[in-house]
Design goal:
about 200 residues, alpha/beta, 7 helices, globular, binds S-adenosylmethionine, methyltransferase activity, methyltransferase, Putative rRNA methylase
Length: about 200
């Protein structure tokens, strides 16, 4: 057995949860690695909604999808992931089966443009509030870059504040590594009465 790294573990978790025909969210499409993985998993009948604030990322993802003839199965949204809930239709919101965030900067691009604590936590909370119980909201957390630690702390604080009756949180982390490797927090709404999330 080889313990998977964070992204491979996130993909494994997603694969357990989705099938062809599902609707899924890629909250940070970047260079399109996750988007292609998701599009392959839900096509031909399903759909991926992918978000990024950088036009460079949207273009890179489109090019990658086109190469694989997967672009009909994806809508690329050039906006922040905390707008996801408002750009989906009611039917799409109820059919979402997984959401994934890959935090940090766009590899090979401007390292100053990174995901932020405020939009990441706002997006995670809105997804938990809106999507059906049992939908994993998977966050791959990078914390080695400037700002990464603050974002990681904010996501962990959110996890700690949520009631365990409403939301379960799974951490997957390779420990005792020399560098600070990325790790995964998966949030899952339980479906129990949720005063926090229903606000
Ligand atoms: N998932 C990507 C892949 O497989 O190639 C990698 C994502 S990269 C680590 C992080 C991306 O998040 C960057 O492309 C960055 O532009 C994007 N980003 C930063 N803030 C964002 C926001 N508020 N909403 C959506 N995307 C954002």
């Amino acid at each position: 057995m080889t313990l998977p790294k964070a992204v491979a573990f996130a993909h494994w978790m997603i694969a357990q949860n989705i099938r062809p025909g599902d609707t899924v969210i890629d909250a940070t499409c970047g260079n399109g690695g996750d988007t292609v993985f998701l599009a392959e998993a839900v096509s031909p009948a399903g759909h991926v909604h992918a978000f990024d604030i950088q036009s460079e990322a949207i273009q890179a993802t489109y090019a990658r999808l086109k190469k694989e003839s997967l672009e009909p199965h994806v809508t690329l949204h050039h906006c922040s992931h905390d707008y996801a809930v408002s750009v989906l239709t009611e039917a799409e919101r109820t059919s979402v089966r997984a959401a994934v965030f890959n935090l940090g900067y766009l590899p090979g691009s401007d390292k100053q443009i990174v995901t932020s604590a405020s939009s990441t936590t706002a997006a995670v909370l809105s997804y938990l509030h809106t999507f059906p119980p049992g939908v994993p909201v998977i966050v791959v957390i990078y914390h080695g870059h400037p700002g990464g630690n603050a974002e990681r702390t904010a996501v962990e604080n959110l996890a700690a504040e949520l009631s365990e009756q409403e939301v379960r949180v799974l951490r997957y982390s390779l420990e005792f590594q020399e560098k600070a490797p990325p790790y995964v927090l998966t949030f899952e709404k339980t479906g129990e009465e949720s005063p926090h999330l229903s606000n």
